[in-house]
């Protein structure tokens, strides 16, 4: 069965319109049926669409019928994408469409992880967030991606809570664990989130060198994977770090990285980050305590 949502998700990651994706391959109507109704086109059309998106045919096909598992997975993936775009209200509304009692067992860790993010970012409840991230870790069942995500959540919650010692412990664990993760299109967003949150933590605690090292790795990884999440925030973070190291000495590098952050933020539709960047351009100061995601 065709998973139209994955085509939509990858198209939006690449900031590509339906018309641009369909151009020279099929009609826009055909593409709409693929994305919205999971109707598969002729094989050669599907192959060309996948090639243009940097996907394989296997990436957009599943053995499952229109199962509860696939439906819930699509929703959880969509919520994660909304978080990368800082669209928290929309993410919360979509999360509320899920019924916790009906979540399939295979997705229980992922559900708890997303719930922890809702608690942490939207409800500002670090205690509930740590509780849900802890359950996510318990239910990960040796799934490396789920373990990395849960540890990232715990580390981030402690960082926001102001418990630097515990946050550093978990972020060190995150970086160590990330070295053993095989990156693919299905886990790239969580992998980048782990590194992005770690980069912000070390920056906030004045370890600008380590933060820049992580941010540079994020940029190289996303370019290699042809993915946009966190490239904009990483350029912004590098500018932030250089600004606090020596504003006068690194003035050119700061402005260059802010311009790159602005370009990628526009491409990915990150309006929240654009507001931070524009504020810096006007006032030559950084917004304090910008949201960590």
TrEMBL record:
It holds the Pfam family HTH_3. It comes from the Bacteria. Residues 7-60 form the HTH cro/C1-type domain. PROSITE patterns: HTH_CROC1. CDD domains: HTH_XRE. SUPFAM superfamilies: lambda repressor-like DNA-binding domains (SSF47413), TPR-like (SSF48452). One of its GO terms (molecular function) is DNA binding. This is Transcriptional regulator. It comes from Xylocopilactobacillus apis.
